[in-house]
Amino acid sequence: MKKFVIIILTLLLSIFATGCSKDSKSKSSEDWSSNFVVWNKNMYNFTNETVLDVEESIGQVEKYSDNENIKTSKVFSNIYPEGTKIYKIKDISTDIAIAVGINDKYIKGSNSEKYGSN
Question: N or C: which end of the chain has fewer CB within 10 A?
């Protein structure tokens, strides 16, 4: 019975340890599973949430890429094409959210993390 308990505990410990480990490859896959824009070294995740009030344009998508191995310091997106305008949302800090202009509406992107941080 003691051996059985030790085997079960060892198995559970190894499963727990494997589940808690982080590597850069899994982090990259998590990043690229969402629609995002990287602006000002931050990753903003986009859904279909729209906003009504935006202020000035704060930039534009400079590079589109669906390649997870991209190395660029440009403003880029894995969903929006080059030239897509990026806006500050009225009364919301860009540390929290930004918007992109698509088809006469503004889509909100929420800041999720510094891009490339592991």
Answer: N
